[in-house]
Amino acid sequence: MKNPIITKKAAQALKLGANGSYSDEGQILQHTLYDSAFFQDATLAAKTSFFTVPQGGAKTLTETNMEDSGKLPNGNTFMIESFGIALKCNFVGTDGDVNTVLSAYYNIIQNSIFEVIISGRAFDLQLPGSRLLTPIPVSDTGTMVDATTRLAGDPNLLASGWYKLPATPIPVANLVSFKVDMISGSGLAALAAILDTASDVLNTQKAQIEVRLGGTLTRLI
User: Fold this and answer.
1) What is the CA radius of gyration of the chain?
2) Residues with Cβ < 8 Å from 88, sequence gap 6 or more?
3) pLDDT band at 203 (very low <50, low <70, confident <90, very high)
4) Which of 3, 19, 38, 113 is the most exposed place for a label (fewest CB within 10 A)?
5) What is the residue-wise DSSP string for 189-215?
6) φ/ψ (deg, to 5) at 213
7) Residue 184, CB half-sphere, CA atoms under 13 Å: how many?
8) Residues 6+ apart with CB under 8 A from 32
């Protein structure tokens, strides 16, 4: 396959080409890459890597849209323009209240660093987790019985929204390994245990953190 072609206009302005999103060479579209990891077994690793495990035996489409391990397929390039995270849980039982769960999540994120790393470079972005927390105070109350209803009513409590990258986006070429590392401070396992305990007893529905990369995808057609 030939190398993907990005028009000068797309490369400079990251907008659709003059002829729309399609051309004879390829397709340009706004897209989101996402990947999830469990707060599993009441532990929180010092470093959790995202975008390294593709769909298959370990992950499904609901957990990641990566089809290859840590890389884009041949003919695809991606310009990372924004960054976001979200807490995914299915709260059950009466293990704690909403206040406790959200406090645990806030503390974990604000004591973590997120790094975008592309093969051959030390890092392309270092972002403190505190930049990804919403300005909504953790002041809601209630038991886990109604937590799903409470939190689903205001998704801002669970998702960071989008952190816009500086003027220069981060390019990810095809077949080049990349990942996002979440580097967490010490002593956070007890907080992860709160999220683990308050989420569903089925392993596939336990609390997860989802990392999202928003940007422009170019691919051959």
Assistant:
1) 19
2) 36, 158, 207, 208, 209, 210
3) low
4) 19
5) HHHHHHHHHHB-SSGGGS-EEEEEEEE
6) -115, 115
7) 22
8) 65, 212, 213, 214, 215
Tell me the C-alpha distance between 171 and 143, whole Å: 44
Q: What is the pTM of this model?
A: 0.78
Residue that is written with structure tokens 């967490």 in the block = 184
CA 171 to chain centre: 17
Contact of 23 with 70, CB cutoff 8 Å? no
Distance, in Å, from the CA atom of 24 to the CA atom of 53, rounded to the nearest integer, reads 33
Q: Is the pLDDT of residue 13 over 50?
A: no
Total number of residues shown for the chain? 221
Q: Which residues pair with 63 in a beta bridge?
A: none
Q: In this predicted model, what pLDDT tens digit does every residue of 77-120 receive, in sequence order?
A: 999 999 999 887 766 655 556 667 777 888 888 889 999 999 98
pLDDT tens digits for 154-181? Answer: 545 577 878 998 778 899 988 999 999 9
